[in-house]
Amino acid sequence: MSFTSGMTVHKFGGTSLQDANAYARIPRLLKGYNEALIISASANTTQILQQLIDHAKIKKEIAALLTTLKKFQQQLIADLLEKEQQAPLLKQLEQDIVDIHDILHTIDFVADYTQSMCDRILGYGELWSTQLMAAFLGKMRKVIYIDATSIIFISVMNGIINIDWQRSRMALENFLHHKKFDQLIITGFIASTTDGVRTTLGRNGSDFSAAIFANLLDAAALIKWTDVDGICSADPHKVKSAFTIRSLSYHEALELAYFGTDIIHPRAVYPVIAKQIPIYIKNTWNPEAPGTYISAHKNILPPVVRGLSSIDHVALVNIEGSGMIGVSGVAARVFQQLHLVNISVILISQASSEHSICFAVSTHQAALAVQVLKNQFFHELNQKQIEAISADNNCAILAAVGDNMVGNPGIAGKIFSMLARANINIRAISQGSSERNISVVVHRHQIVRALRVVHSGFYLSKKTISIGVIGPGNVGSTFLSQLQKSIPILNQKYSVNILIRGIMNSKKMLVNDNDIDLSNWKSTFEHSQTPADFSNFIEHIVSDDIPHAAIIDCSSSQTVTEHYPTFFKRGLHLITPNKKGNSGDYTFYHTIKTIAKKKHCHYLYETTVCAGLPIIKTLQDLIQTGDEEISIEGIVSGTLAYIFDKLSKGRTFSQAVLQAYQLGYTEPDPRDDLTGLDIARKFTCLARELGYSIAIEDIAIFNLVPPALRDVSKEQFLEELPQFDHDIQQQMQSKCKKHEKLYYVGSITTDGKVTVDIKAYSANHPFFNLKGTDNIIVFTTKRYRDFPLVIQGPGAGKEVTAAGVFADLLRLISFLTV
């Protein structure tokens, strides 16, 4: 086959040529005809050649290193070629090693080297690997070896490489004239100056070579073979949830490349754009993976942000002063001085007031930048027209890139919001008028977290949430069971992605980086050997890779509530049926509410009063919609509702208590119900929702436990309680008129007085027909004066409480945005 258009150009990097086995894989990636292969040096060869140069300059021993390099190349030749094929390459290698040694001897002698010396030595890596590849593939196909120094001619001006396209194209056409071939095997990285001296194409030079030859050959496609599946949505070493981007436009690829994506270099894109040659990024070791396709085609499908990139070692230089306002030419002077000392500016940001200019440069250039600018603005600094020129070396840049960002409002706001929620301060902002890139400067130590936060915000569902469950007892385990059954439906119908990443009780905890399997969590938890640790548990649940995180406290522990402020400070939302936080010390209650609001965390506690009944939400709605003169009465203990129901039917107090105990309606010690303390806690919660600064100690509580039985054992209490039936009956009869029923009721008056007492109600009251263990709450308000608002239903039990917690979780998810 002779030279025609429509060729496929393949570029193989050093990781694809790391040993003989890697070379042997190459033919499987090729079709075998109408192809050009651009070959890099084998893995680490260029680095070793550079080491040799550096060692020679400081008169350090080079013999061992040069021998290691020579033996590596000899072994490759021996492994890949037959004996008769080896001789020419081995002879050339010997001559090349002599040439390298002679140049290194010169460098050692003068303790310095020129760029041409360096280029000469570094180019041998590509020559060796390309000659070897040509010999290896030549056993199977008709190949032509091309030393790119005879084809590509360049000049360098101000550090920018300029291709002499006309001369290079003519050289290639002349070289291939009337030649027949299946494959061209071409050196990467090296080229010639206009004077014909061998030089290199700099960093990522082989990628540049491949793009140049794709242009010269009018290629149909350029395939870059590397050791990853393609360009990722973010650096996978920094962001675990990063994924391969299936397609990018040229402009998107250029932006990502400029801001640090090391899979492709900007110079490897420019030469193919003019001829709209598509680029494929493919994995040598996983060729079946689809890879990344780069073309002129603009992606119109989500996501809006196609990828994130970052530059880590950045300094932010700031020039500030009121004397700059309205003065023309300041910016020009700044960047002219930087140009004169070859300092490349990565990012520029200037306030519209012209009071300051800040720009980003590489950290190693920061001191020089500050010094030349201080020299340039010496007069202005002395006159205080410029107050300071300084550099912060601890910065990094995060860039969000996407064609679909153009004309799409809210992208910048979304990024800023996500970083703010993660307590990441933005030092500078830059966005071009093309709107294809938004860049922010953050502290260098926060760049990984910033990448994870923004990545999760754009690429995970806004309803993806990391959950930690504390207290996997009756309510907690029931909640997990209910959740397990519902997760598939929530995923499928509502795109809700709930990840249970931790479960903890007072002794130990179970954590998982992804999601705990709820089908057998009890067994896994039982076998966990990890001791409970609040700090570690919190840090695990708060994940930068997941946009939202929450704790669900299903315990009744006072100790757990003491950690609520920490939860909120770490940005965790909180759901709990544990009423001790809201009914305990008022200062603490005020603190957790304040911190939750300040940190924009949701605090949901519907189940602290009457389990799954919508008591808290109803009260909040009444308050928020401006209703007034609110009073509340309620029977909020299923145990006491049952006991008083039995009393109304003629049972004695002791009989009613014993029956409730035997049926499992009471706490393990029935006195915990009979003291009225639990009801007082619930009404403290309600009173505080109304804005009253009340504590349990302020509540008058009628204690149903006879004083003589308050400090005895549970067994003695149950045995001796019948002795007090007569006295208790007398007390109750004194509170009750004919045709009334007694109930154990909590109440809040319109002036904020809270009581827990036995009260009598007539047949026209909503309480009168209450039966069994049901709870009931009556709201009397300005709007609901004649016909009070009544909520009635089961107010206790693990199933309904767990369901209430689940409902709070779904309510939380409905609130979430990114």
CATH architecture of the largest domain: 3-Layer(aba) Sandwich
- Our measurement of the CA-to-CA distance between the termini, rounded to an integer number of angstroms, reads 56 Å
Which shape, going by the Cα principal axes? Answer: elongated
Helix content: 25-40%
Radius of gyration: 38 Å
The overall average pLDDT, rounded, is 92
Q: How does this model look, in words?
A:
The protein is an alpha/beta fold and 818 residues long. The protein contains 30 helices and 30 strands. The mean pLDDT is 92. It folds into 4 domains: 8-223 and 284-293, Acetylglutamate kinase-like (Carbamate kinase, 3-Layer(aba) Sandwich); 307-450, 2-Layer Sandwich (VC0802-like), CATH 3.30.2130; 464-608 and 804-815, Rossmann fold (3-Layer(aba) Sandwich); 615-796, Dihydrodipicolinate Reductase, domain 2, CATH 3.30.360. The strands form 5 sheets. Strands 3-6-2-1-9-11-12-10 form an 8-stranded mixed β-sheet, with helices on both faces.
